[in-house]
Amino acid sequence: MNLLKAEKISPEQENEHGQVTDDAVLKKDRVRFGIGTVLYQSEETGIGPIPTAIIRALGGTSLHLGIYGSVMGISSMFQWVGTLLLRKFKSNQKAMIFSMIVGFITAVTIVATLLLGQKEFFKSYALWGYLILVLIFYAIGGIQWNIESSWIGDLVPKNKLGWFTGMKWFIGVFGILVFMLVFARLADWRPKISTYAAVYLIFALSFLFAILLYRATTDRTPKAANFVDAGANHHERMNYKALPLWTYIMFYVFWSGGRTTMFAFTNAYMMDTFGWSMTKMVVIGIVQFAISMVMVLIM
Fold first, then answer.
1. Cα angle for residues 76, 80, 83 (degrees, 5° grid)
2. H/E element holding 133?
3. pTM, entire model
4. Which residues pair with 237 in a beta bridge?
5. pLDDT tens-digit profile of 235-282?
6. Which of 139, 144, 203, 267 could pair covalently with 49 via S-S, beta carbons 3.0-4.6 A apart?
7. C-beta of residue 278 within 8 angstroms of C-beta of residue 184
8. Helix (H/G/I), strand (E/B), else coil: 14
């Protein structure tokens, strides 16, 4: 299976909505999306407790740990930018590749900031620079998640979504678990700022590989809704009166807010109170992911 070679889609392989009906094509694309999930989400999920170690290595306090914890939640507010990119490029593929380029530039800038942070006189600047850059980094992850979700909706017929996304998610989670273990072992083996910078360098390289992968993924013209007015096509405007929309928004506010509050100081607490290593903290998280993987296969 050549995952870096794009498929040619004929009219016979599409339905009336422009979605692909050929299972052979979709099987390759769900593997590409699964690997792509690893490449763009591993920086948010796979990095585990390393940011806590970075902040402390740069002289950060509980204040900075709290700011970092809030950054993870704030980044979700930038997902709507993905819709703007879809409307601008009129291509799921081009929008995703553009976001990958921005992610690469941000990751490289974080690497440079951390390396400069090894110098005592630059530590305080590197600390605040890291917090700002991480906000951008997580925001890019939210944008990419939005684009991916829209892309899958434009590509996959509704009756195949469970079959497509279940395996895609399974591949993605398995890959993220591998990243988590590798990063944790690196951090335990050599707990230095340069090691943490190397982790973000891996993220930068993963964005470059993701560009090659997404270039081969079947592109579709996005059907992104307008936020305000769609001109003559008022049916394209978002329905702000929809109760399910606001119910979901409220659920996400409470759910995400609770998780953010819990995670802000969890890693620091484990390190200080129990003396846990990075690897041990990651293993606890792996248990949760393993249960989720089993449940997805069952469902």
1. 140
2. helix 123-155
3. 0.85
4. 226
5. 566 778 889 889 988 887 777 666 666 666 787 888 888 888 888 888
6. 267
7. yes
8. strand
